[in-house]
Amino acid sequence: MLEEKNGKVMQSSKIFPTPFFLAAAFIMIIFGASWGTMFLWQLRGVENFTSLNLFAINAHGQAQIYGWVGLMIMGIFSSFLPKYFGKDPIDSYWQYLMIGFMLLGVTMNLVSSIGLPSLFYANLGNGAIVISVLIFLANVTPLLFATKSPAHLFLYTAFFSFVLSALYSFWHHGKTFLAVGEKALLAQVATYQAPLRDLQVHGTALFAVFAFLLCIHRNAKSRRLNLSWVLLTCALVGEISLFLAYRVSQNHVIAAFLPLAWILLFVGTLLFVLELKPVGMFFRTALAWLILSELMLMILPLYGYFSHIPFSHAYYGAIRHAATVGFASLSLIGITVHLYYPMGVSQFSGWFFLLNIGCFFRVVLQILTDWHPIGFSYIAMSGMIEMVGVGLWCVEVFKGFALKARRVVS
Ligand code: HEM
């Protein structure tokens, strides 16, 4: 069992899954920060977010959601949960299979999107991602059934959303390859992509991070946390079903109810945060980004009204970046720091600052592009700052690995 002291899991440095981390960090640096920065650079000339290659953007998104966030979640939970519940660790054979299938999936998605555009490679890639997630689920579900904890509801929702999103993604990306003509492609993306992102970011990442926070606050048990789960789950189901119903029926009255789901999301998050009072700079900052992204979502209709842009790609992309980089990525990095703290990884390093500054500039400049083209001139800088931040973080944690290896040898 893990030892808990001042809300920190002190022995957890021993359980961090190195191969998962290495694969995820590689994907984040190359296909997340570097490739993402290249997209931003391309915008300087054309000054239009819709000019970017849709298949390439989706390949970047898939690589980040499954190859970075997904691998980190699988790595953290497949080694953390058994220890936490005092059960046998998941066989490393299964862990390598999860990583192998995920890497195959991400690679095939990249090949299908930029090298050899083909439905066959897209299905192979998304199929491999589904298999990887199913292997993870097959290993953690029996563990959840055999144990009890205040985090269980959050864990179930996170893992259910994870597998559902992988299956949905398989179907949706296949459809984008089958779409004949630009109109059909845009119709598929405009209707089915936002619910997929909801499942990935709010359904999987948010619930997984909240579950982890509940696990490390062992005494967290209260009605308000259960209420927060109810609100967040209703918000997730609401935002997905309302959006799909609106797009399929083209009935704008249904869309008018979407802010209700976003308000539930915001209230559920606030309830969770106020009740749990998470400790640590990383978690607090990451949660602040989440709350900001939810506030921005709530005022989306107002933004449309004042900007006279019915649907702003820039604004929606800024919300997503605050949620995926500001919240999800910082939380996952926070978990690694939390797990590595006893090994000497410093909490307040420059990379933490750079990641936040980069994310801040990205959100601000991306929104600015709706109002003034100067936003496009500097937005690539934000990606570069994030890239350096992620790189420095990796170096620091690698030092942690080296330190650990040296300790084991001596
Ligand atoms: C770290 C540096 C990153 C940079 C510079 C970057 C850059 C970009 C750019 C320029 C776009 C297209 C424009 C837009 O829609 O805003 C994009 C889209 C996207 N990014 Fe990133 N990104 C980064 C990290 C991440 C991470 C960590 C995730 C997920 C965890 C992520 C997920 C996505 C997704 C899902 C899309 C596609 C959105 C859609 O059209 O549905 N990105 N990114």
Radius of gyration: 20 Å
Structural class: mainly alpha
Helix count from the secondary structure assignment:
14
Number of strands: 2
The poorly predicted ranges are: 1-15
Widest beta sheet: strand line-up = 1-2
User: Shape, please?
Assistant: globular
**CA distance, first residue to last residue:** 25 Å
Tell me the helix content: over 70%
Task: Note the run of SSEs as H and E.
Answer: EEHHHHHHHHHHHHHH
Q: Into which percentage range does the β-strand content fall?
A: under 5%
Largest sheet: 2 strands, antiparallel
Nearest-integer average pLDDT: 88
Bound molecules: protoporphyrin IX containing FE
Looking at this protein, list some descriptive labels.
410 residues; mainly alpha; two-stranded antiparallel ribbon; 14 helices; binds protoporphyrin IX containing FE
Polypeptide structure, described:
The protein is mainly alpha-helical and 410 residues long. It has 14 helices and two strands. Among the domains are: 53-217, no CATH class; 219-277. Helix content is 81%, strand content 1%. α2 (54-84) packs parallel to α6, α9 runs antiparallel to α10 and α12 runs antiparallel to α13. The longest helix has 36 residues, at 181-216. It is globular and about 55 Å long. Protoporphyrin IX containing FE binds at residues 32-33, 36-37, 39-40, 49, 52, 57, 60-61, 64-65, 68-69, 193, 197, 317, 320, 324-325, 328-329, 383, 386.
